[in-house]
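Case study.
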Amino acid sequence: MSNAERKTIAASTVFAAMFCIAPYAYAMHIMEGFLPPKYCIMWGAICVPFLVAGFISLKKIIRDHRRAVIILAMAGAYTFVLSSLKIPSVTGSCSHPTGTGLGAILFGPSVMSVLGIIVLIFQALLLAHGGITTLGANTFSMAIGGPFVSYGIYKLCLKLKSPKSLAVMLSATIGDLFTYCITSYQLALAYPSKVGGVTASALKFLSIFAITQVPIAIIEGIGTALVVAMLEKYASKELTDINFLKGAVK
Amino acid sequence: MKFNKKTAAICIIICVIIGVIPLIFDKGAEFGGSDDAASDEISQITGTDYKPWITPLFTPPSTEAESLLFCIQTGIGAGIFGFCAGRLYERKKKNRDNDEL
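After joint prediction, the assembly is written out as follows.
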């Protein structure tokens, strides 16, 4: 390994370690046992087709775009890092970003359902963060809903001819925020308020999850835009290969 | 957006500022998880103290042990990301864009 490589790795590790010293460790996904069984099964079933599509898409990328696999690894690693960073927010509680926007923009949203569920299983089994029974619901919010919205916003921004970095930033931010909106709605469906029903509950949960998430989503947006800019500079060949950059780059 | 040292530095500084602001201005807050706040809310809605119908198979024995496991997650991710970024950077530097990695 060369000196510069070593420096890059050391710098990224220090950066990551800085966040590990966060004094409070709590969780943000729906906790184990907090969804009634029928909702666990329902959300799990909804996830299946997305996961199958994700596997097929992943297989295609690995077969047809061999040189882009390094970018795929980076997108997965990005989710791994970001979903472990619990950042304090304005409401006085902590939450973490999802990091699924990057992969969704680069490879399409279905790939992220597979990468996302890996992270969720890791956290559910080892960290008691989220849970196996709520895995379906959490997968739907973090690994399916968020990425699909990110992807949609990104395409929409490009149609509106917005600058690429702005498109990336917006899509990652809104995708992240949307993940927690889904979480709020999932909880509201299972626990409708006696007065006002599902809507009243949803508003209550939204006020907890979504507001906390706003600044964190912005951080994720900036970070994702930075990573994409970095990839455009250093991996233009790979990005052209997966049609993220148009035209031949020498 | 052009990627260079300046934009990278500015972006990281903005992120750190956004992260630090609540710590400075919300001195009294305990910065628990937003999901703990949510479970209080569930208890309020159902009107009874909510008991999860299943508990995790494995719970880290203490917050210290939990932070270790979280660090491992961050470490795995940051390691892979940094390694790949380093390889891409080196390739560009040696001007061999066509190399497969």
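Observations recorded in class. The domain at 30-241 of chain A is CATH 1.10.1760.20 (Arp2/3 complex 21 kDa subunit ARPC3). Chain A touches chain B through 99 residues (CB under 8 Å). We will return to this complex in the next lecture.
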